[in-house]
Amino acid sequence: MIYLIIVLLLLLSALFAALTNGLLGLSATELERKIKLGDRDARKVYAVRKKGNQLLCTLVLGNVAVNSALSIFWTTVVNSFIAGVIATSLIVIFGEILPIAMITRYPLKIGARSIWLVKVFMFILYPVAYPLSRLLDRALGAEVPTVWSKQELKEIIKFHEDRPESSVDANEERIILGALSYSDKIAADIMTPRSILFSLEVNAILDDKTLSEVKANGFTRIPVYRDKSDNIIGLLYAKDLIAVEPDSSVSDVYRHDKVLIIPETKKLGPLMNELIQGRNHLAVVYDEYGMLVGIVTLEDIVEEIMKVEIVDEADNIVDLRLEASKRAQKYLHK
């Protein structure tokens, strides 16, 4: 009979150790996310896991009580020293190492199937565990939710893409990493430099030569300036030139209400919101001295997120920044 009790106590010790590591190892934040995705096991476990300190006190109290009882019962079979050695060995191997190693593989599944037993333990040990948990709540505060930094999220995405069992592919990895990175960059990082801009003076005549230049450059939106190229006052849409009268002036067709002026230090996140909300496609970039340094389009930001160059049939140059860099190198090496 005494050996049967010892075996029962050892099983309870293993159960308490496994549940302590398995259930408390599950993040409440992770369980909430799984519940939103319809995971039934997560819903079962979360009902108990959300009471973090009470669950901790219940399982630890149960584990300590069972291990103490196990040592006491061994002393009725052998002398105290041998009982201590045997009890410690059994608890370490069968009551700690093996059950913890097993539950760490499938903590959610095992936890969900044994949650009814945990509720029984919480009910039995409630008079002691609940007051202790309230003290911990007041002393330590609420459990801190798990929040990952952008860099951690990036590493998680990379890890998933590298795993054969993951459904995240290389394209999704590229786009997600771009979406997590683009808002840290500024307009100067992605703008089309001034050296490669094609712009028109507001009083320029739209004769055959000018229209040919517009067509040759292939830009759908052309900055319009007054007197000097730094003074951008509007945009000329290439599509507005379709029905333009012969020898009309740029001032007759340009749009003066579609210019968004930004500093070169403007972050891409807020800039994208401004472009979308203002129904603009292009922003004109100035440096701290009020000098025109380039333009940024909504397409530029999308390319930064997608990490690809978006090229349509009207684009004569694939990468404008690269082209500007090549031209600069030619000038520098003359």
Written overview of the protein:
Helix content is 59%, strand content 9%. It has 16 helices and seven strands. The chain is of the alpha/beta class. Helix 14 links the parallel strand 5 and strand 6. The longest helix has 24 residues. The strands form two sheets. It has a four-stranded mixed beta sheet with strand order 1-7-6-5. Helix 1 crosses helix 5, helix 1 crosses helix 6 and helix 4 runs antiparallel to helix 5.
Question: Strands of the biggest beta sheet: in what spatial order?
Answer: 1-7-6-5
Number of β-strand runs: 7
Could you estimate the helical fraction of the residues in percent? 55-70%
Biggest sheet details:
4 strands, mixed
In what range is the share of β-strand residues? 5-15%
Poorly predicted runs of 5 or more residues: none
- On the 0 to 100 scale, the average pLDDT is 83
Rg, nearest Å: 34 Å
SS-based class: alpha/beta
Count of discrete alpha- or pi-helical segments spanning 4 or more residues = 16
Gap between N and C termini: 99 Å
Instruction: Give the helices and strands as they follow along the chain.
Output: HHHHHHHHHHHEEHEEHEHEEHH
Shape: rod-shaped
Oligomer: single chain
